[in-house]
Design goal:
The complex is a heterotrimer of chains A (356), B (182) and C (260).
Chain A lengths: L2 E6 H11 L4 E4 L7 H9 L1 H4 L3 E4 L3 H13 L4 E5 L1 H16 L4 E7 L15 H5 L10 E3 L4 H18 L2 E7 H5 L1 E6 L26 E2 L6 H21 L3 E4 L6 E4 L2 H16 L4 E6 L1 E3 L3 H7 L5 E5 L6 H9 L5 E4 L9 H13 L2
Parallel strand pairs in A: 2-3, 2-4, 4-5, 5-7, 6-7, 11-12, 11-14, 14-15
Antiparallel strand pairs in A: 1-8, 6-13, 10-12
Helix pairs in contact in A: 1-2, 1-7, 4-5, 10-13, 11-12
Chain B lengths: L1 E9 L4 H14 L3 E6 L9 E9 L11 E6 L2 H7 L3 E9 L14 E4 L2 H7 L6 H12 L5 H11 L7 H15 L1 E4 L1
Helix pairs in contact in B: 1-5, 3-4, 4-6
Chain C lengths: L2 H4 L26 H15 L5 E5 L7 H4 L3 E4 L5 H11 L4 E7 H7 L1 H10 L4 E6 L2 E2 L5 E2 L18 H4 L5 H6 L4 E8 L3 H19 L4 E7 L3 H4 L3 H15 L3 E5 L2 E2 L4
Parallel strand pairs in C: 1-2, 1-3, 3-4, 4-8, 7-8
Antiparallel strand pairs in C: 5-6, 7-9, 9-10
Helix pairs in contact in C: 2-9, 5-6
The chains are: A alpha/beta (356), B alpha/beta (182), C alpha/beta (260).
Amino acid sequence: MKELKLMKGNEAAAEGAIRAGADGYFGYPITPQSEVMEYLMAEQPEKRTGMVVLQAESELAAINMVYGAASTGKKAMTSSSSPGISLMQEGISYLAGAELPCLILNVVRGGPGLGTIQPSQADYFQSTKGGGHGDYRLIVLAPSSVQEMFDFAFLGFDLAFKYRNPVLMLSDGLIGQMMEKVELREQLPRTTYFDRSWTLTGKPDGQERNIVTSLDLDASRQEVHNQHLQEKYRKCQANEVRYELLNTEDAEYLFVAYGSSARICQKAIQLGREEGIKIGLLRPITLWPYPAKPLAELAPGMKGILSVEQSAGQMVEDVRLSVGCGVHIEHFGRMGGMIPTPEEVLENLKKLLITK
Amino acid sequence: MTEEIIIAGFGGQGVLSMGKILAYSAIMQNQEVSWFPSYGPEMRGGTANVTVILSDERISSPILHFYDTAILLNQQSLDKFENSVKQGGVLLFDSNGLTRHPERKDIRIYRVDAADASAKMESAKVGNMIVLGGFLKIKPIVKLENVYKGLEKSIPKRYGHLLELNKKAIAVGQEIVEKVRG
Amino acid sequence: MDIKDIIKPENLVYQKTPLMTDKPLSYCPGCGHGTAHRILMEVIEEMGIQSETIGVAPVGCSVLAYDFMNVDMVGASHGRAPAVATGIKRCWPEKFVYTYQGDGDLAAIGTAETIHACNRGENITIIFINNGIYGMTGGQMAPTTLKGMKTSTSPYGRDIETMGNPLKMTELVAQLPGTCYVTRQSVHSPRNVRRAKKAIRTAFESQKGKKGTSLVEIVSNCNSGWKLEPVAANDWMVENMFPFFPLGDIKVDGKLVNNQ
């Protein structure tokens, strides 16, 4: 029988982590994601699966606890919201450099600075184009429902270990705070096998010790390491692109939107079609690697494309890069924690793409 | 069937939990639901609101501009959301503390004086269940048996004794809700 | 007598612990790091816990500690070693976990991580090398630089008015209920090396007994940064560092030693 539960997005991510067999969660409170750690502390996963949960003294400490746990092959997770994720960037760069798997959840709020606590999607650049120092990529998953907050904990850990790379779940205050019905999966067992080719479990007699580091003072070796990372990222681009199409078969106009904006666009499509405007949606599920190819294939049949984001226009740059010239592309977004309504989105599609 | 609802009032009036119980009830009858609250400092005694959508189909936007039903429990909420009710939709309000009643002529308006009724029941905490009872009288979109199941799911076990009181409050709400216009 | 008659196990009086790798140390001649590394590895060897030990290297002169220590090790970002160690120990409570950090790492940029790991009583061992200066970056002022001491960023001597006071982190963490064993040692003489090694052993034994955080500070020299020859640097340390950073146990078995 299906196990159904009404949950907040933040709670679903926490329950997902437990059931995906996470070994440790390290975090620091910040609105609008505090329910993640609150849920974990109340659930006492240490009794359920042996998973440890620790409230760190800062986001800096939290991401470095994740780094420590991940260096031993354990499934480690942290979560935060925009300002806290900024603070973690150094650690995330180290995790990527040392090729450590982990799951990071960003429940985005409005910025810059302390900003607001309301939902936003203005951390797209930070998530997909770097964030910390050096040439590295994160695998970025964008849940657009509470169910996906749960499911992507599983997918996130899978991808993190498959590529030995941090995976970022880029959510926002809307998906994190809303409640929806979640179909829970069965508990996965926690890992008991640790791959001695890279994990720190204590040097066994007669074997070489393992070292986990992102440092190599020899520039020529550091370049080789960088080349290896880039090769890994190319594999990721070839194999891990995920997206969803909605109403695109007969569409003349296309929304490109992820996360909560994709949900708002779905309603706008419905309203638009009631007026006879044929709109479809491409929803990127992986923001990195970006679904550039499917978007490029879809674009020539469109009279116009509207990238809808709760930002000043960040993802629209990837839409333009994917599609190139020849198709009319515009951006519509609200900023600083304001959420556009479906009516507003439709209005702007008409204004920017049809009457203009 | 899709029902798009906004519930708004003072923090502490049980706005969010009322939405939660409604959402739970819909799950009990196998529907899709979404529940999106205002959150943050607003929760500390200011105004709070929650958008609840119940549907037989996958739910698109969890936030809306127009609603099938608005349940408005204080003046600020009435001022903010009266014009967000779809034509022909329902506005349900509690007159307690209002200086201006709803004025629209193109919607159905109902009144449930839950604050007064809960005072008579000597439990201010069940005001929201009286409102819910009133709403379900107007729009019986979820079965009462499923509401009771939803209540069981949302009331912590240590408050189990409050279940009967809440059921009673729902019944009171069904009794006292009255049509004002439409 | 042939040389083979001499090189026999029964004639062996001393050998390098196999827990030190064969890689030549990158430290300056006369620096205390090499000795501190060695006695730490000797303790791990003598306790027979090499296969159960995970070390955390800092940022600073000992950033490459994992090149010399033959145990599983991870390099932390600057100051975060106690957080990294916390992450490891919480997931592997049965392993021995230690950090090896300098004064800038532990007492400046990593102050919060140090204090909070100690306050939570993380069951780890912290080895703290204090030489009152930033060695790796070329001799800048450290949180433990003495009053009036000249460094490249306090070229006229540390001015307390504008640059603040030297920080006694070890005394500070000894006040926290999470710490079990806190001590200050040195490695400038054979006698002190023996004492320091004994202290490290005590620290690892308290970790074995799950007693809380143990911290061993080793007051050391930096002849390059201090611009002194090795012997003179040790003499300067005895005359100037020890009066402000007195050697000896500060907290034993969770109890502060007299006068602390």
